[in-house]
Design a protein that fits this description.
- The complex is a heterodimer of chains A (about 120) and B (about 110).
- Chain A is mainly β and about 120 residues long.
- Chain A is about 0% helix and about 55% strand.
- Chain A is globular, with a radius of gyration of 14 Å.
- Chain A starts with a strand and ends with a strand.
- Chain B is an all-beta fold and about 110 residues long.
- Chain B has no helices and twelve strands.
- In chain B, strands 2, 5, 6, 10, 11 and 12 form a six-stranded mixed beta sheet that branches. In chain B, strands 3-9-8-7 form a four-stranded antiparallel beta sheet, with no helix packed on it. A two-stranded antiparallel sheet of chain B has the order 1-4.
- In chain B, a hairpin with an 8-residue loop joins β10 and β11.
- The radius of gyration of chain B is 13 Å and the shape is globular.
- Chain B starts with a strand and ends with a strand.
- The relative contact order of chain B is 0.33.
- Classes of the chains: A mainly beta (about 120), B mainly beta (about 110).
- The interface between A and B is medium-sized, with 30 and 28 residues.
């Protein structure tokens, strides 16, 4: 199993350009996520998809759109890139764990995409 | 609001020394608690997790963490650090029953001197 894969690994954009970050998982997980990682701020959730056909906003959704193309793939689109979107983007997927405290989704992360917007 | 604090931005230890990375959370009830490690240029890997029960949790790579409810802490420990442990470590919490939300701390970068 490849786990969670992301493309591209690196990207440089000019302000105003658009692009789509791709994510795929081969673990048959229902839920998928997009995070951004900035120095000194940990990871922040942009959007997530609890199941195929649904998407929801996370903590920092402004300037982004997502598409859950099918169960395997979850893409993140920047319609008009801004320097503030310079970051490392991580995709994750999750499976449900049954615990004594209730169900929980354990998340597995991809290797990341490093995006620079000039 | 729920939050996670990792007070130490950078820590440097000598190889073979013991390690403790601090994590404090702010949440009304006991959340689910996690430690992730990120090696340079890599994604995040789960080291260990706490849901309930025994407050001392064993993880991979010789790491352990202890949940202390009275201190709202979940500190990560390792008795003897190896050079390959140099990485960034993130503490994360999810509200109990929090189905899809992880809240991450800002991370602690660990350097290991030979």
């Amino acid at each position: 199993n490849a786990g969670v894969t992301q493309t591209p690994k690196f990207q440089v954009l000019k302000t105003g350009q658009s692009m789509t970050l791709q994510c795929a998982q081969d673990m048959n997980h229902n839920s998928m996520y997009w995070y951004r990682q900035d120095p000194g701020m940990g990871l922040r959730l942009i959007y997530y998809s609890a199941s195929e056909g649904t998407t929801d906003k996370g903590e920092v959704p402004n300037g982004y759109n997502v598409s859950r193309l099918n169960k395997r793939e979850f893409s993140l689109r920047l319609e008009s890139a801004a320097p503030s979107q310079t970051s490392v983007y991580f995709c994750a997927s999750s499976e449900v764990l049954r615990t004594s405290g209730g169900p929980y989704n354990e998340q597995f992360f991809g290797p990341g995409t490093r995006l620079t917007v000039l | 609001a729920q939050s996670v604090t990792q007070p130490d931005i950078h820590i440097t230890v000598s190889e073979g020394a013991s390690l403790e990375l601090r994590c404090n959370y702010s949440y009304g009830a006991t959340p689910y608690l996690f430690w992730y490690v990120q090696s340079p240029g890599q994604g995040l890997q789960l080291l260990l997790k706490y849901f309930s029960g025994d407050t001392l949790v064993q993880g991979i790579k010789g790491f352990e963490a202890e949940f202390k409810r009275s201190q709202s802490s979940f500190n990560l420990r390792k008795p003897s650090v190896h050079w390959s442990d140099a990485a960034e470590y993130f503490c994360a919490v999810a509200p109990g029953g929090g189905y899809n939300k992880l809240i991450f701390g800002a991370g602690t970068r660990l350097a290991v001197h030979p």
